[in-house]
């Protein structure tokens, strides 16, 4: 959705998607990036999603999907553009190097178009360049080191043409820096300035406007690929002096150097040969050193060295005893007498002291209790001489109940047919992302501005996958003021920021301050009359504080405050018209928030009003009728005699007041 493959949502929490819409978005992503179109998150697609890239979407909403360069439609009305670096306090980067890199990146586009760029020190320049971190107020928040590197805006007023770079990235500003963990600022800036000039993303891999980062290529001498040249020239034209689609650079021929004047030739001379030195080393003071004679040097005399035998023998070598004396013999220990066997002695005699005899200990007799469970004595019937055997049992009271087999439970509910759209009651109703969601059993419908959406009812677990797999129904649903969706199922509640369950859920209802004896919630809504959240169950209701995440202290209260509604409602919600609707059975009441009572005591049929079903109750087309047989009434009792009694008293009081006035 962030990059245009899914339709945007009116809320920041994200739109709710079906599986088929997600598969279609994956196919479009694979087709745009040049991957094999499978519709699945295979290894290549996951690897592509993890690559660093530009933060602008690849596909604009309602735009025609095209290959090659895509002129966005907006261009500067003039070709002499100015730019300025507004973020000057860059502790991690050298400001002069950053400005030099940006000038080189703009020069890439100037070489192949009529554009010229000039740097000025002013905030009124056409292209303003900033370095930011995280959320910086333009709905394109940075995510720290990693995926989103930068983004830029197309030409226009306000932020038009501005370029923003993520300060948390490891930017490389030098041409010869080959750090594998860094990102080339030149390559990313050249891409973002393409957006500032009016070009969108290209699906041609290798093009400069390809949305995914491709690394440094040819340093600052980078030349635009053909796809990008055609795009920029379609917006601003070709440079007038260009030839063969590039701006020629004039290099004057080098001037040949002036040759030096010739030197005068010296007269020829006869070469002299230097005397040779002796080839032996010179040792001063050596005896017998011959006198130096350069014509016939004499080799010095070296006396012979004395020779020594390799293995000399020493006849008078003294004898040394061994270093370690021999170990003495192991000492003799007399054999320890064997202890007599205890079993051979008297049972009360101490084997260590045979003269001492201990008397036997006396223990009281103890009979263990009989813990056996009494059973009915066996009965053996008497056989009769007839051919059949008749058994007669005495009428005795049964002591133990018969064991019943525990029923086997499955993790999945029984498959049920989807409920009839035009003949059913509702479990829960809520406005989610400006659409009405109606829940019944395991299914739900969606109602948009143009009525019931096609393809519904659909299973609830297809939209919200982390709900229990054995889900049979939901009790209540409402959207919180922070756009998170809350499901009530039994004694637990689930919170969804989008279509995925928030970490730490489900939680028990007691975490909301509700009593532990409460079995379920019948309905929940945010009442537009005061902006408070209300929970309904049976004949009681609670008001919930969304800031403290607890119900208020002076609750619960009786449902009689909501006159005409009664108790044990099925669903409640507030529609986009600001009115509150209570549902029970196959009908509903419209509630007047100012008078605190239903507008009409008689219920209105739900299916014709909300589902667009036919009001012809005698029709025979399935799904187009609502066969109601019993008139639906509100929670007000019409046959109570007390109502007539109080009505008569009220009329009499009014008549007396009128008589006194007259």
UniProtKB/TrEMBL annotation:
Can you give the residue ranges of the Peptidase metallopeptidase domain?
Answer: 72-238
Q: Which CDD domains does the entry mention?
A: HX, ZnMc_MMP
- Residues recorded as binding Ca(2+) 5, renumbered to this chain, are 429, 524, 572
Catalytic residues of the enzyme: 192
Q: Which SUPFAM superfamilies match?
A: Hemopexin-like domain, Metalloproteases ('zincins'), catalytic domain, PGBD-like
List where Pro residues composition bias occurs.
250-270
Q: Where is the composition biased (Low complexity)?
A: 280-311, 349-360, 386-398
Q: Where does Ca(2+) 4 bind?
A: 427, 475, 570
Question: Which SMART domains would you find in this protein's record?
Answer: HX, ZnMc
Residues the record lists as Phosphotyrosine modifications:
505
Binding-site residues, Zn(2+) 2: 54, 191, 195, 201, 209
Biased composition (Basic and acidic residues) is annotated at: 363-372
Question: Which amino acid positions bind Ca(2+) 1, per UniProt?
Answer: 169
List the PROSITE patterns.
Answer: CYSTEINE_SWITCH, HEMOPEXIN_2
Start-end of each Hemopexin repeat: 419-467, 471-516, 518-565, 566-613
Give GO terms for biological process: collagen catabolic process; extracellular matrix organization; proteolysis
Required cofactors, per record?
Answer: Ca(2+); Zn(2+)
Q: Name one Pfam family in it.
A: PG_binding_1
Per its UniProt record, what Gene3D superfamilies does this chain match?
Collagenase (Catalytic Domain) (3.40.390.10), Hemopexin-like domain (2.110.10.10)
The text of the family note is: Belongs to the peptidase M10A family.
Task: Tell me what this protein is called.
Answer: Peptidase metallopeptidase domain-containing protein
Q: Which organism is it from?
A: Ignelater luminosus (Cucubano)
Q: What is the lineage of its organism?
A: Eukaryota, Metazoa, Ecdysozoa, Arthropoda, Hexapoda
